[in-house]
Structures are given as C-alpha cells and as structure tokens.
Structure prediction request, 235 residues.
Amino acid sequence: MVHGGSGVVRLHDGGILAKIAAFSSFRGRIINANHSIKDPQFPALVLAAGQARRMGCYKQALKLPGGGSLLGHAIGQARQLSAQTWVVAGAGFPLVRFRCNRQPARWVVNERWREGLSTSLIAGLQALSPAALGVFVLLADQPLLDTEGLRRLSAKARRTPEVPWAASYGKRVGVPAWIPKSLWGDLFLLKGDAGAGVVLNRAGARPVEIAGVQQDVDTPQDWQQVRGQLAEQAR
Prediction:
C-alpha cells in the first residue's frame, strides 16, 4: 500500500522493496557489462585544427556523398572507439563546428593551431579527464578507415590499456592509435608538426591492421579520388 497524504510515500510491502533492490542490483550489472560506462577511461580525440592550405579550403567542412561533412564522418569513426569522442578544432572555428553534421561529446579549441599538429594533440590531452587510462587519437581526414579495423583497435586497447596500439603502415605505425597514459609525457614534448607516430614508433607500439589508413585527404586531387570511393561505398 502507498500513502502520500503527508508528502511522503511509504511502501509497506517488504516484498516489493526486496524486488526493487534485486532489480537495481541486476540492472547495475547490466550497465557495468557495457564498455561505454568506462568510456571516460577510454576517450578519443579527433584532431581537426589545421588550416589545410594544400586543399585551399577548410577540408573539415567538405561535403560527403549522401550528406554530412568530412569531420562529421570522422566523429562517427571515433565513436567506434569511444562514446567519449572529443574534437580538437582551430582553423575555421566556429564555422567548422556549425557545418558539422555530428556533434562530439566536447569541442576543444586549440588557439595555437598555427604552430603545428603537436599543439592540437597537447591541447586535447590537457582537456581530458584524470580518469583516462590513455587516449585514442584519430585524424579528421582519413574517411576510408575500415570499421572492423577500428573495432579491433578498441578491443585490444580495452583488454590491455597499458600497451600502445597503432595502425600498421607497413614498416611503421601511426594513427589511429591507442596511447596509454605512460607515454603522455613524451607527447607533451612534441614540437611543430610532429605527431603521435614519433612516440608510438619509438615505444614499439603493437600494430593493428586497419584498411584505409594510407588514403587521406590533403589536396583537391586526393578528395576527388576519395570522394569517388565513398560514393561507390554508398551505393
């Protein structure tokens, strides 16, 4: 029975209370079984602050076949790795944000973007929660990344978060990558256009096969080729 006349709701049936407690415990186990509950420990950064001089426009806002922007597509890729997907922006902000069809968990604005890629990586790291065990790092201009490859990267990082994992480029590795917190000190020492690959290769990061890593968008010619491949995939 429930009485609410005094503004206080009382349950007199102890059986009901026991059932509620049991359901809450069971529900908690379901939630904790879902890796997304741990995503503050496994955040993802999409680096998208560059001016893209070789492209001649803000490539983050390029329109994909079927709709959406290049940056919006990158956010979708990053969500294969983590629900805690953040974007580091700089050149063209806030226009790039306005034209983005997907919104990340948070935008980080790198005021020093003119000084090179390293500053975007550092700005992103500085913004992350202390709870992070490491970070997934992606670029905004690799739209042909294989989804299954990204899922493999996510699974490996969650099983062994103390180990660096990175996309295979043949004889070297690079982003997308999982960079454990033990390597962040080395990332903070990067200068200019140096990226995470320098640290990952020096640390002997374990390779992960992710198709599409070799095809990025730097020039109008790159975009024409990649856009054609995306159009084929959309059919």
